[in-house]
Write a structure and sequence with these properties.
This protein has 5 helices and no strands. It has helices at 2-27, 33-50, 56-71, 82-88, 90-111. It is elongated and about 60 Å long.
């Protein structure tokens, strides 16, 4: 379960790197606010992925902060609606779900008694 959650964290990071690379080339200077916010989120996601196996709660915090930013419209929505939410913020949602799955798997794994094999 840990590896599955890790892959769920890694996919959005790779996608966000690609999206930001294209956005920065296309936008020129000065950078739009959305690109700057996404760069900050990307740094948090990269730190969370690097620390995932030691401190999985970091990814959970980054996921919750990102979802909070989406919900209160700090990250602007193109249009309102549930379908647009999944379309526009699908990778953020994937990171959020993966971070929470990994954190829960860590807690459950620590509470399970060790058995001799």
């Amino acid at each position: 379960m840990y590896i599955f959650a890790f892959v769920m964290l890694l996919i959005p990071v790779i996608a966000l790197i690609g999206w930001l690379s294209i956005a920065m080339i296309a936008s020129g200077t000065p950078r739009p606010r959305m690109v700057t916010l996404r760069l900050d989120i990307l740094v948090g996601m990269i730190v969370a992925v690097l620390l995932y196996f030691k401190w999985p709660w970091v990814a959970t915090i980054v996921g919750w902060v990102t979802m909070g930013m989406v919900i209160v419209h700090v990250l602007p929505w193109e249009e309102s609606g549930v379908e647009n939410f999944f379309y526009q913020f699908g990778f953020d949602l994937l990171f959020f779900i993966g971070a929470n799955i990994g954190f829960i798997a860590t807690i459950v794994g620590r509470q399970r008694p060790r058995t001799a094999t």
